[in-house]
Amino acid sequence: MRILDRAGKIAEGSVMFSGVDIKAATEGQMRDLRGREMSMIFQSPRLALNPIRKIGHQLEDVLLQHVQVDRAQVTDRAIAALEQVKIARPRERYHAYPFELSGGMCQRVVIALALACNPQLLIADEPTTGLDVTTQKAVMDLVVELTKRRSMSTILITHDLGLAAAYCDRVVVMEKGRVVETAPSANIFARPEHPYTRKLMRATPRLGVSLRNLLPEEGGAVMARPSRPKDGVASARLCPAIHVLAQRQ
């Protein structure tokens, strides 16, 4: 979505969306895409919301920016957006400030903001961080329901393998910014092929297993920067399969 800080950049490759190269697009093209064609649920809902503006006014800003709507109707559209994410007493919450709402309620508001303009693509970046388990399920069930109802696509960015297994049709595993494995969800959890994927699954805490035994010793090393090596892959020195092959040779 090109909303990285100035220090961040796309080092290589391209990102295509609806025939537009995101890397090469002008800022005007990106303004047309953001909100209207693609939108995002951010990791920390309280940081994503303006603390000194009412919830309803923030929704109105999004609608007025991206949708051709009469100002006389924008309030009703904002309240309807709150109703769609199942916020109780939406007309009352319209006048609330973020600090008056719970974490789960704030996340529902962020979802309402993201979906207000009916985007084709929704990017959910760790949408359940900081929420209790019950609220996590409610938020994810809501995202799935709205995804199906609106016939849109959703990308879930998460470190929680449980969420990926429960809600994703297809999983893409990335290590240091590079795709190392992709497969249907059922296949990747039943038969992980890449060493990094298997390592992620071994790292999942389990009752009766010591934390020291979750990862092999070589898994603790961290590369200083994700530069591309001249030969092989960036994680070669951390991969146990590489060491076994070298010993056999």
TrEMBL record:
GO terms for biological process: peptide transport. GO terms for cellular component: membrane. GO terms for molecular function: ATP binding; ATP hydrolysis activity. CDD domains: ABC_NikE_OppD_transporters. It is found in: Membrane. InterPro entries: ABC_Ni/Peptide_Import, ABC_transporter-like_ATP-bd, ABC_transporter-like_CS, Oligopep_ABC_C, P-loop_NTPase. Signal peptide: none annotated. Residues 1-201 form the ABC transporter domain. The keyword Ubl conjugation does not apply. Keywords: ATP-binding, Cell membrane, Membrane, Nucleotide-binding, Transport. This is Oligopeptide transport ATP-binding protein OppD. The gene is oppD_15.
